[in-house]
Amino acid sequence: MAISRTEPGRPGLMYGRSVRLFARVRSLFVAATLAACGAAPEPRPSAPAAESPPAAAPQRADLPDPCAQQPGKPAPAPLERSYTGVAARARCQPELYSIMDGVAHSLGVGCDYCHLVPDFRAMTQRKQVANWMASELIPALHKKGGGQAGCGDCHAGVAKILGEPRKEPFAIEWMTTHLVEDFETKRGSPLHCKSCHLGNLGTPEFQRKVSLTHHLPTD
């Protein structure tokens, strides 16, 4: 049953199933992309954020391939170096910048949320988490409605989706009404607390920390 209390710092975000509804509605207005918050060169200031393609799904058919040669224009710049994690799919510098724009929209943040400006290549804790999510967590999940999962499917423009500081009752509601109902394992099995936390909530086996671990959904 939904509870009509609004979480502090999260305008309009309510407990229970309204969390799912809010995330789905808001995702229509943000780029639902898996984006490169990993180590990368400084993003170009003029990059159009609105055209950021989803990083965890095929590029939209109505947008030009950022790495394709366009008539009368210079060839897209090649990657300055190779990447792993959330930037692994980038094939050229324009696509890398587009991915970087996408993560900013998906999390509702600026570049300095993950990067140490001006040293954009420096590793940070948030980059490590983003890379782990891209290379480990996202591939272990499937959306029940079809399609490949991306940052925006959960974040929908909010970086700290469980609150900052985290509110345990709200986190339990969100996990239950969003993750469990909207996602399944890559083989199609239902998700449970123990799918990632090694045990159900309240049991000795339950492990709170999931990020940067090997605690992933398995069948």
How would you describe what is shown here?
- This protein has 219 residues and is mostly helical.
- Helices cover 26% and strands 3% of the residues.
- It has helices at 18-27, 93-107, 125-137, 168-182, 193-197, and strands spanning 141-143, 183-185.
- The chain has a two-stranded antiparallel ribbon.
- The longest helix is centred in the middle third of the chain and has 15 residues, at 93-107.
Task: Give a quick rundown of the structure.
With 219 residues, the protein is mostly helical. 26% of the residues lie in helices and 3% in strands.
Could you outline the blueprint of secondary structure elements for this entry?
Layout: H1 18-27, H2 93-107, H3 125-137, E1 141-143, H4 168-182, E2 183-185, H5 193-197
Antiparallel strand pairs: 1-2
Mean pLDDT, nearest integer? 77
Along the chain, the helix and strand elements come as: HHHEHEH
**Helical stretch tally:** 5
Distance between the termini: 29 Å
Q: Which residues form runs of ≥5 with pLDDT under 50?
A: 1-59
Keywords:
219 residues; two-stranded antiparallel ribbon; 5 helices; 2 strands; globular; disordered N terminus
